[in-house]
Amino acid sequence: MFRRLFDAPYLLLTLVPLFWAGNIVMGRHVAGHVPPASLAWLRWALAVLILLPFAWRSMRADWPLLRRHWKLVGLLALTGITLFNTMQYHALEFTPALNALLLQSTGPLLIAFWSLLLNGERLSRGQAAGIFLSLMGVLTIICRGDPHVLMNIAFNRGDLWLIAAMVLYGLYSSLLARRPAFSALGFLGISLSLGLLMLTPLFLAERIMGPPLTFDAKTLTAILYVALFPSLLAYLFFNRAVQLVGPNRAAPFFHLMPVFGSALAIVFLGERPHLYHAAGYALVLSGVVIATRWAPKTGRPPASAELETGDAIDRLQRRRPE
Q: Is the model's pTM score more than 0.85?
């Protein structure tokens, strides 16, 4: 079953924004309670501890690839693991959820920019139209169907941190297209470990000079959620989907984040659904479908990568507790 899921890139790309929407909600929930570098470090530390028993053999097998491509892998770990999430959590200490969802929707445009700059990959007309249509859906949801809301949004320094974080994640997403034929678990284990290592000095500095960290139920719940869903599963799924369909086809799925965010608020916070929710959902989903159906054809990964990924998933399934 997990192997079939791993060969369904658009299902993977649908689950990723669901997990990341929960990450924004959780990050905002614990803002001011858990310092940002500490939340990011504990997130990746727990994720690495969970992953290592399953990924260790793949990481050892991928060591020769890492030695040949250490600069690229190090840059991926720095941008996508060390900096992006730490800057995002710092931004959420100042930025309301409305601003965060709006700024996260710049993801497809930034990925398109970096893909053109680094890979020479241009957006097709269908991709551009789909991104524009889904962005209109995002704005419909965020503004609650009233364009005056957008005109009255006040931006603060947290917004600047979030924009910078999104620029880095656009770079990370585009660089994934250059990833060598690592196995899925091997690459995830290596990149998370390197990102955690590079984040450690900032974590120690925050623990020495920053606010105290209290390990209560709120803190532990947040760490457990962000380690499992936005970290392990989301990065595993996103990396695999980009490997299969490329960054530009994956990018429009960022616009599902406010869709899922508002749906989570309706389900868990008791907010009432409105007509603008339905209109926004329809625009976002239509844009995603158009962008994926009318995108240039992207080849599948090399056979060696497919084989390594399949072997890694088989090992994960065999070692998974019943």
A: no
